[in-house]
Amino acid sequence: MPTETSRNIAWEALPALFPDLPGPERWLPLLQAHAALLEAARVRVRVTAVPPAEAVRRHYAESLEMLRIMRAAGAEGPLGDVGSGGGFPGLVIAIAEPRLEVHLIEPLQKRAALLREVAAELALANVTVHALRGEEAGRGPLRGRCGVATARAVAELRVLLEYTAPLVRDGGIVALAKGSALPAEIESAATALAALGCSSGEVVAMRPEAGDLQLFLARRHGPPPANYPRRPGIPERKPL
Q1: Which of 25, 84, 152, 215 is deepest in the core (most CB within 10 A)?
Q2: Is 210 helix (H, G, I), strand (E, B) or coil?
Q3: End-to-end CA distance of the chain
Q4: Which of 35, 122, 143, 38 is nearest to 80 (CA)?
Q5: What count of Cα atoms within 13 Å lies in the side-chain half-sphere of residue 60?
Q6: Bridge partner residues of 176 (DSSP)
C-alpha cells in the first residue's frame, strides 16, 4: 500500500490530473499564489493544519476533484461554499472557473477578511465573501439562489445539510466532501434529507491520486423549507 508521503503530488502534476480544466497556464500560477498568500498570513490567521508537503494534494487537488465531480453531476452556478476557511474548495474553484459566481461563507471574521484580501490580490472578480454563519446565510440574500452549495468536512452530514440545502434553488445540488465516517452519517441523515427537500443522494469517491474524501451529492426539490435553517447554533446542538 502506498504511503501518504508517496501519494503527495507536485504543483506541476495538476494539469495532467485535470486535463479537462482549460487554461492551466492561468490557473496554476494563481493557485500557487493563493498558497503563498496563506503561508504569509499564517502568523496572524490560521486556516489549515495540513503540512505544506501535503497541501497540493489535500487542498488543491481535492478542491479541483470536487469541481470535476460536480461538473459530471451537472451542477451549475452560482456556488455557495460554507465554512470556506482558507478558500477550500470555494476559492480554488473560483480560480479554476473565472466565469462562475462564487460566494464564500466564513463565520470567523479574521478568516473572512483574509479571503477578501486574497480575492483582491488575485483579482478574482467572481468572488464575494460573506462573514456569516451558515444558518445566517441560509436566511439571507443567498437563500434559494445557488445552483450548488458545497462544504468540506466542516461538520456531521446532518448539520452540513441544514447549513447548505437552504442556499440551493429548486433542482440544484448539495455537494458535501466527507471522510470515512460518511456511510454511518448517511444512515442518520434520512430525516434531514426529507425535511430539507433533498433527494436521498449518491456518493462519489475521489480518485486516489486526487484525494481521500468522498463527495455526497443530493438534489434539492422545491423552494427552501420555511422552517430551516434554524437559529445559529441549533443545527449543531440538535441535528435533525
Answers
A1: 84
A2: coil
A3: 38
A4: 143
A5: 29
A6: 151, 216
- Which residues in 162-197 are b (16+ Cβ under 10 Å) and which e? bbbbbbbbeebbbbbbbeeebeebbeebeebbebbb
Amino acid at 39: E
CA 43 to chain centroid: 24
Query: What order do you get walking across the sheet with 102-105 strand by strand?
Result: 127-130, 102-105, 79-82, 146-152, 168-178, 214-219, 202-205
- Cell numbers that stand for 127 in this block: 468572488
Collect all residues with Cβ–Cβ distance below 8 Å to 33 and sequence separation of at least 6.
121, 122
Give the whole-angstrom CA distance, residue 90 versus residue 30: 14
Contacts of 152 (CB under 8 A, 6+ apart): 62, 63, 66, 83, 88, 89, 176, 177, 213
Q: Comparing C-alpha atoms, which of 95, 129, 133, 135 is closest to residue 113?
A: 129
153: left (phi over 0), alpha (psi -120 to 50) or beta: left
pLDDT tens, the chain, 240 aa long: 344 445 789 999 999 999 999 999 999 999 999 999 999 998 888 887 788 788 999 999 999 999 999 999 999 999 999 999 999 999 999 999 999 999 999 999 999 999 999 999 999 999 999 999 999 999 999 999 999 999 987 789 999 999 999 999 999 999 999 999 999 999 999 999 999 999 988 999 999 999 999 999 999 999 999 999 999 999 999 999
Q: What is the C-alpha to C-alpha distance for residues 57 and 190, in angstroms, rounded to an integer?
A: 32
